[in-house]
Design goal:
about 170 residues, alpha+beta, about 25% helix, about 35% strand
C-alpha cells in the first residue's frame, strides 16, 4: 500500500500514501468564521467537525505498523490518517503549509516507527509540513454512534411511512 523512501535524515523513513486528494474550499476555523459567511459548511468542514467531536486531547506521538490504512485531508492544515481500519489520528500541521495542494500523494516522516508531534512532518507536494499536534480519534465509538443514528433514522422513517404510523390512536 505505501512505499518506504529515505528523507534528508538518514534514519527517517517516509511513508508515501497514494490516493485521490479531495478538493474543496479551505475551511475557516472558529464559530465567528462560520457565522461570518452565509454558505453552508463544506464536506471537509463537516468531516473535520465530526472527527473533532471524537478526538482526544493532544498526544506526543503514535506508533504505526509500517504502513497507513488510509488518509483523508480535512482542509489546509489538518488530515486524518488511519494506522488500521479502526485506529485514526488527527494531525494538524504548521502554516504556511497547505494540504489542499498536495496532489495525489501524502507521506509522513517517522523515526523508529513512531510519528512525533513537533518533530515529524507530513510530506505533500514535495514540501515538508511539520506536525504541530496529534490527537487520537475514538473511531470505534464514532462508527458505533453513526450506525445507531442511522438505525434510529431508518426506524423513524419507517414509522412515518406506515399508514397511521405517526398516530396509532386514530380510528
Amino acid at each position: 500500500m505505501g512505499h518506504n523512501l529515505r528523507s534528508g535524515a538518514p534514519a527517517a523513513a517516509v511513508l508515501v500514501l497514494l490516493g485521490a486528494c479531495a478538493s474543496g474550499a479551505p475551511p475557516q476555523s472558529g464559530a465567528a468564521a462560520q457565522q461570518a459567511r452565509s454558505t453552508p459548511p463544506t464536506a471537509q468542514e463537516r468531516a473535520l467537525a465530526r472527527y473533532l467531536s471524537y478526538a482526544g486531547p493532544p498526544i506526543p506521538y503514535f506508533t504505526w505498523l509500517g504502513h497507513f490504512y488510509s488518509w483523508e485531508p480535512l482542509g489546509k492544515d489538518q488530515i486524518v490518517v488511519f494506522t488500521t481500519s479502526n485506529e485514526a489520528y488527527l494531525l494538524k500541521i504548521w502554516a504556511p503549509c497547505d494540504l489542499r495542494f498536495g496532489g495525489v500523494g501524502v507521506g509522513v516522516t517517522s523515526l523508529t516507527n513512531t510519528v512525533y508531534a513537533r518533530t515529524d512532518s507530513v510530506i505533500t507536494g514535495g514540501k515538508r509540513c511539520p506536525i504541530d499536534e496529534i490527537r487520537r480519534i475514538d473511531y470505534p465509538r464514532m462508527q458505533s454512534e453513526l450506525r445507531q443514528q442511522a438505525a434510529a433514522n431508518t426506524a423513524a422513517d419507517g414509522a412515518a411511512a406506515q399508514p397511521g404510523g405517526a398516530d396509532k390512536s386514530a380510528h
